[in-house]
Specification:
287 residues, 6-stranded mixed β-sheet, 11 helices
């Protein structure tokens, strides 16, 4: 199973939102990292055919998704970033409604809904109106509807937004558990959410993929790019203006900074252990 993006391009007038992207997805989780405006949501909307592409192709097992039409949509689950609900519905009613739109038989839908509400910890509030749900609870309902019908491609746009740390871990582990026979592109700005579960990570900036690889490979690529050093408080502003600063912290009464880049100041020490995807993010995507 393959989902291929070939020279995928999206323009709004003279503005290039996506610039000739070439990526091949197979089974697994693909974390898509980037700042606002990097092209993450544009990519998601093109994959779901919510917006028209300017150029390029999107192939699912060798056939363009525009030609596949309903056949591709049956294989697709989508969790959008924005929450849009019929607030007067309960979670259960909403999920049955979505299952009906997807053409899932009612008996099968009931089984799937029971299972999904259980794993997302919503069974006890399934009859509560969505207007009474917190933002995090609504996120979980959106994830449930994306998984109805056992889709082979599950597109997740900021799936853990609004969730507390315990819920984030629960949902993150659940996403990991369902990824073996699915293609899961997952866009997020929460680096820690994808570092532990992604098979591949795409780093996007200004409509382009600037780096792609396994988390370990990406971390290894910045092994000689990260340094911690003491810094006098009066020099902190200058350091931040000249270098990418990951952290500012106190150590034994002194102010220290973690700086990332090709050219680093003298002093301090290079970090060989405890490198993270946040260091990778700042190196490739930080201004």
């Amino acid at each position: 199973m393959q989902l291929e993006l070939i020279d995928l391009t999206k323009k709004y007038g003279d503005f290039v939102a996506l610039d000739h992207i070439n990526v091949t997805f197979t089974e697994g989780i693909y974390g898509i990292l980037g700042a606002n405006g990097a092209g993450k949501s544009t990519t998601m909307n093109l994959l779901t055919d919510n917006i028209a592409r300017t150029g390029g192709q999107i192939l699912f097992d060798g056939t363009d998704i525009l030609k596949l039409g309903k056949e591709f949509r049956r294989a697709l689950g989508y969790m959008p970033q924005q929450q849009g609900f019929y607030e007067h519905m309960t979670a259960q009613t909403f999920l049955f409604y979505m299952a009906d739109l997807k053409g899932i038989p009612k008996r099968k839908a009931a089984q799937e809904i029971d299972s999904l509400l259980e794993v997302t910890n919503l069974s006890h509030v399934r009859h509560r109106k969505l207007s009474g749900y917190s933002g995090g609870m609504k996120q979980r309902v959106l994830l449930c509807q994306a998984l109805l019908g056992d889709p082979k491609v599950v597109i997740l746009d900021e799936p853990t937004a609004g969730l507390d740390p315990k819920e984030r871990i629960r949902i993150r582990n659940f996403i990991s558990s369902i990824s073996r026979e699915r293609i899961i592109p997952l866009a997020t700005h929460i680096v820690s959410d994808i570092e532990s579960i992604s098979d591949q990570i795409l780093m996007m900036k200004k409509g382009q993929v600037v780096k792609m690889g396994e988390p370990g490979e990406l971390i290894d690529s910045v092994a000689d790019k990260v340094k911690e050093m003491p810094c006098q408080p009066e020099n902190l502003e200058q350091i931040q203006a000249q270098y990418k600063v990951g952290n500012i912290f106190n150590r034994h009464g002194e102010t220290w900074v973690r700086v990332i880049g090709d050219q680093l100041p003298k002093g301090g020490r290079y970090i060989e252990e405890h490198l993270s995807l946040e260091d990778v993010y700042l190196y490739y995507l930080g201004e």
